[in-house]
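can u do me a favor
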């Protein structure tokens, strides 16, 4: 297992990382993406689905980037409009295990790095019982102008911390979107809710609650 003893900064993804995505929420998100494209392209739902599937994960790894491309919007505006069409908080509840695990990691500097928008992420944090004050900053496309897997947000955090890149640990549930760009810059990486071994993941763990044990054992 890769040594993580030098970690000082933890960068967290949110959706699918702090909580497991369930099919109903995944469906709500995808329908929201389709609706934004319908609004701006004027296509039928069937054509939107066809065009979306043509380029998602082929030309763009981020669904928000696909929406931006097909809707002729900025990535930021796409995220704003998309998030207006669904509410993740109805699927979330207070998570005492998550809260305790984060409290146990209070000696680290924490960033939240999300592809959503801040005004929607904060109520979701509250629903889980996680205080927004835990994070040095919540980094979104609104702040850096693009979504993961763009390197912009990762570099923004490095510029803010002024710490060596290898002292940063990126934790996420998506290899292409969360881990590969972080690894490209030299960060350490942790894949959650998976035991899959992948070159982009220094550590793979079955649940997010295992993060503390992984760091404490190093």
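np, heres the sequence
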């Amino acid at each position: 297992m890769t040594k993580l003893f030098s970690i000082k900064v933890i960068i967290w993804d949110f959706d699918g990382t702090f909580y497991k995505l369930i099919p109903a929420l995944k469906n709500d998100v995808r329908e929201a993406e389709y609706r934004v494209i319908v609004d701006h392209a004027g296509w039928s739902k069937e054509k939107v689905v066809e065009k979306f599937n043509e380029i998602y994960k082929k030309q763009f790894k981020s669904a928000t980037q696909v929406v931006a491309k097909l809707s002729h919007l900025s990535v930021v505006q796409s995220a704003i409009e998309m998030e207006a069409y669904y509410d993740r908080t109805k699927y979330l509840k207070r998570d005492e295990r998550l809260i305790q695990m984060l409290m146990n990691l209070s000696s680290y500097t924490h960033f939240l790095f999300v592809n959503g928008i801040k005004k929607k992420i904060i109520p979701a944090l509250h629903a889980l019982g996680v205080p927004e004050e835990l994070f040095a900053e919540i980094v979104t496309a609104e702040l850096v102008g693009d979504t993961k897997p763009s390197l912009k947000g990762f570099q923004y955090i490095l510029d803010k911390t002024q710490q060596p890149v290898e002292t940063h640990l990126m934790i996420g549930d998506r290899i292409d979107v969360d881990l590969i760009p972080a690894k490209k810059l030299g960060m350490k990486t942790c894949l959650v809710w998976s035991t899959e071994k992948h070159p982009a993941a220094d550590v793979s763990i079955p649940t997010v609650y295992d993060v503390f044990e992984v760091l404490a054992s190093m």
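The radius of gyration is 17 Å. hope that helps!!
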